[in-house]
Write a structure and sequence with these properties.
alpha+beta; Extracellular Endonuclease, Chain A; 2 domains; 6-stranded antiparallel sheet; two-stranded antiparallel sheet; 10 strands; hydrolase; endonuclease; signal; nuclease
């Protein structure tokens, strides 16, 4: 009976964290955070109103228990049994950033969760559905027309990240860059890092990106990014949402749900 009371209390606590209107399945609580997730990751519902640029700053960076590489190096987790990429962590230097920017791009032909057909889509970047009503009169930065999915780097090439599957997830275009002006999605912290290291060439940036999976799904629902500059001026824990306004993503297999 005592254990049942504890379980009930835990369920009630989790329920308080879930937005109104979202049901909590008690059997699924253990699956909210996948095998590669950071302890600070929280899975909640995305909304365009709350996170129009597809990222949310949720606190300060947390590298507790993480073995950090030497300055100028990046380490990548080995893919799990499903072939999914895990955590990537690096200590970014100006030299690493320059080497990555100057290197020729060499993307893998496919990665885990990559769809057989990458659909061309129209994504409304605002809530007024202007994009769907009339593409020809679509105001700047209100619509995206193009392929839905990107091979999204965990640590950007421009920060020295490798063009290999261990450093990539199948992400929506908006997960990768948000509205793209200003930079959103993964590009938010990438831009912050590039701008800072260019202004502080003798400094370093501790940078960690962790894809968060639900159960055996092949696509992460979020990626959490921890970024801390050596002078402490940037110190953030950021949740990046792998979704797209108006589309239902098939996280289990890739592509979209009909």
């Amino acid at each position: 009976m005592h254990l049942r009371k504890i379980a009930a209390a835990l369920l009630a606590a989790v329920t308080l964290l879930v937005p109104a209107g979202c049901a909590v399945d008690p059997s699924a609580i253990g699956d909210l955070i996948g095998p590669s997730a950071s302890s600070g990751a929280q899975v909640t519902e995305w909304s365009l109103a709350a996170a129009p640029d597809y990222y949310t700053v949720t606190g300060k960076a947390d590298f507790t228990g993480v073995t950090l590489p030497a300055a100028g190096e990046i380490t990548y987790a080995q893919p799990d049994s499903l072939g999914r990429s895990g955590r990537a962590v690096g200590v970014i230097t100006k030299q690493l950033r320059d080497d990555g920017s100057e290197r020729d791009r060499d993307m893998p032909s496919t990665i885990t969760g990559w769809p057989k057909r990458n659909p061309e889509v129209d994504i409304n970047l605002t809530a007024d559905n202007t994009c769907a009503q009339d593409k020809s009169t679509c105001p700047k930065n209100t619509c995206y027309h193009g392929y839905l999915f990107n091979k999204s780097h965990l640590i950007a090439k421009s920060l020295g990240g490798a063009d290999k599957a261990e450093n990539m997830v199948t992400g929506t275009r908006t997960q990768n860059v948000g509205k793209n002006n200003p930079a959103g999605g993964m590009a938010y912290t990438e831009t912050e890092a590039r701008d800072w290291i260019d202004k502080h060439p003798d400094g370093t940036i501790t940078y960690m990106a962790t894809p968060n999976y639900t159960g055996n799904e092949l696509l992460p629902r979020t990626v959490t990014v921890d970024i801390r500059t050596s002078d402490g001026s940037i110190d953030q824990h950021v949740t990046v949402w792998n979704t797209a306004n108006g589309y239902s993503i098939d996280y289990a297999k890739g592509g979209t749900l009909q």
